[in-house]
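hey m, so remember when u said the tokens were messed up on ur end? i reran from scratch. heres the input so u can diff it against urs
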Amino acid sequence: MRRMAGAADPGPRGTDLRSTWVGASRRAEQLAPDERYVDSLAASCSKRPTGSLERRRVIHVNVTEHPTAEWAAQQIVEAVGPDVGLARLIRDRDKIFGAAFDRRADNLGLTQLRTAPRFPWQNGFAERWVGTARREIVDQVIVFGEHHLRRILRAYVAYYNADRPHMSLRGDAPMRRDVEPPSMGRVVAMPKLGGLHHRYTRIAA
């Protein structure tokens, strides 16, 4: 995968970008979209994850061979919708986030926080998820094209949200899992994604 590059202003001189951004990014429920390319056997496809920072949950992912500003704008509508009470959206300054995207975000009542150039840690959740998805799924399969990649990523998102443990959540998944005491039975591994990953749970003997 490779990062799509964009240009932007570096921010005011003398400002501690790290402390300023971290302070701003923790204020409320937020979204963190990002754009990545995946080289496949059939085409170069763009994949866009959008996640909620509250519990590291990925709420939308989509794939296209022809990413445009209009397509990106439609993704934020599909991810958020008119009835979800989200306050802020963190994004980089990629040129794909154009006027159409800004209009959609404004209509949804989202305040956009733009990261500084060459400061990927300011959108750390999206950056980290892209790396995780690459290592855990994309690098493990042969992708045959746009539709195949979309199906793989959506299956991975379901596993990531419901089954995959996260250290930052003390071993829980983004969609909360009940604690299973030893009295519930023995631990078994339930295959996910064709056996590439597993969900560990207890079942009665």
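this time it looks ok to me. The chain has a mean pLDDT of 79. if urs says something different then somethings off w ur setup not the seq
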